[in-house]
Amino acid sequence: MSPNEPIWIAGEEPGAGFPRLAEDLTVDVAVIGGGISGVTTALLCKQDGARVALLERGRVAGGASGFTTAKASALQQTKLAEIRRLHGDETVAAYARASSEAIEWIAATVRERAIDCAWERLPDITYAADAEQLDAVQRTAEAARAAGLPVTTNGAEAALPFAAAGAVRLDEQAQFHPVRYLRALAAAIPGEECHVFEQSAVVHVDDGSPCTITTDDGRSVTAGAVVVATNYPLLDRGLFFTRTEAVRSYLVAARVRGELPATMAISAGEPTRSIRPYSDAGGERWVLVGGEGHATGSGDAQPQRYEALERFAREQFDVIDIPHRWSTQDGSPVDRLPYAGPYTPHSRHLFVNAGHQKWGMTNATAGARVVADLIAGRTPAFAELLDPNRLTLSAAPQFAKAQLHVGAHLIGDRLTPAEASPDEVPAGEARVVRSGLGKVGAFRDDDGTLHAVSLRCTHLGCLLHWNGAERSWDCPCHGSRFDPDGTVLAGPAAEPLPRREL
Ligand SMILES: Cc1cc2nc3c(=O)[nH]c(=O)nc-3n(C[C@H](O)[C@H](O)[C@H](O)COP(=O)(O)OP(=O)(O)OC[C@H]3O[C@@H](n4cnc5c(N)ncnc54)[C@H](O)[C@@H]3O)c2cc1C
Ligand code: FES
Fold it and tell me: Which CDD domains has this protein been placed in (predicted)?
């Protein structure tokens, strides 16, 4: 078991998987990305009668969707209050409807396809860990009511397994096993001229009539429509990188004794603590604890993040052990609404489903329905809400902040002095070292071998930072991640880092 593997993957047989794209192909719809955004979109397009090819760089559900907490909730911590503040009552009501309909769509899919994915209806609670968080809980309750959700507040905290200052509760939400769910959906795609390909990274997309996509080993797929569902949008032409922050967070799974909490829950303020119960097929009881989020590529990616979550788990539950810890990231649009629809204002054949800001079980499902409707020529219910090309002026301050942050890393980081010589890199750690070609990122593995790569992100050239928690080189600008040998772990970068000799 990899030290940082989620319980959803560690507890499952890897399965035979899907083949790599081995020859050129023509389909109606090509979908890039095998997470919940891509798999759901591909399946819906197949149901519409299209010939579909889904291309995934690694394994299906190997991205954020296999590393998630997998709560399907319309309450979503304090998201409704934030959307109401930025966009008003009508938009928050549409967002809540899109989320609720997505939950019912997943429920119907699980039922109709008899998917064994531990689907379970539970309340969801946003709680105030202390008096200072009461205001956020209150605003969330008001926004939820404005959106038409039947939330309760009186004594809502009583359902929590620990004391809280107050809470807002929404019943009949759900949680599930994301990897089993997605593998079942993906298994329904092949056949009738539809395909799923794994280990098939897309490096280039020509948006035309038809479109052509090219994989890293030079194979191509010709398609009438292409959907980019790569978590952080892969292609720069939509300028998503100017308005989307990549945010990383951490999870631990604690094996516990006694009763499991009868609710999902998340704190309304910092430090974020998200919990959900899980009973595995062998009858073991687990509580997942998540939180400790920060911008990807910041120096905050430290192993101590896990220790803070483990401490919380041990304080609140009767913990036997904590064998699973993992981390993942998601894109957060500056105006706090996801993107589902045409890639640019001029795109006719290129679509995006992304920007799910840590609520992708519902948002990606809602987005997949919008994109599939557009491709099939139907008028989607939430096209305006999720329009990737909306002009949301109310988000201007966040936009400016995001740009300042990126600018600082593009320019300022180049001035950071080199820190070490190769001999000074300890086992299990990484340093920035100076070589003839400039700065090099050097990681010494536990066997003593040095792995050296260029430190310029292959997306737009920002200087990468070492992530000690995950042993990766992470980009502070738009969240691309690379392993110590330069292989892309997360986009928008598509090309690996050049390796360097030391
Ligand atoms: C810690 C954490 C907890 C979360 N908990 C919840 C929760 O409880 N409820 C909830 O609703 N949401 C939650 N989320 C959010 C949710 O997990 C995500 O929004 C969702 O999984 C995103 O799905 P996706 O398909 O867009 O991205 P991903 O699942 O990341 O899928 C994208 C896929 O694209 C592939 N890809 C990338 N580039 C290429 C390429 N060039 N060629 C081919 N393939 C490519 C990747 O390998 C990846 O498999 C959480 C997020 C985090 C970070
Ligand atoms: S992810 Fe854009 S420069 Fe690195």
Answer: Rieske_YhfW_C
In the sheet that holds 430-435, the strands lie side by side as: 430-435, 438-444, 450-454
Helices (H), 222-344: 304-316
Q: Clarify whether residues 322 and 453 are in a common domain.
A: no
The crossing angle, in degrees rounded to 10, of helices 79-87 and 89-112 is: 140
Q: How far is the CA of 387 from the centre of ligand 2 (A)?
A: 24
From the CA of 481, the nearest ligand is: 2
26 sits in the region (left: phi over 0; alpha: psi -120 to 50; else beta) called beta
pLDDT at position 417 is 46
Paired tokens of 101 = 């309909």
CA dist 336 and 177 (Å) reads: 26
**Structural domain count of the chain:** 2
Last residue of a domain, one of 308, 333, 358: 333
Listed as ranges, residues in the chain with pLDDT below 70 are 1-3, 392-419, 437
Three-state secondary-structure class, residue 213: strand
Listed residues 291, 307, 333: the one ending a domain: 333
Please report, for the domain that includes residue 293, its CATH number: 3.30.9.10
This prediction's pTM: 0.94
Q: Which domain holds residue 259?
A: 120-175+245-333
Give, for 411, the enclosing helix (H) or strand (E): helix 396-411
Q: Are strands 202-206 and 350-354 parallel, antiparallel or unpaired?
A: unpaired
Q: Which atom of ligand 1 is nearest to the CA of 354?
A: 26
3-state secondary structure of 59: coil
Q: Are residues 160 and 282 in the same domain?
A: yes
Query: What is the CA(61)–ligand 2 centre distance, in A?
Result: 23
Closest CA to 64 of 44, 43, 38: 38
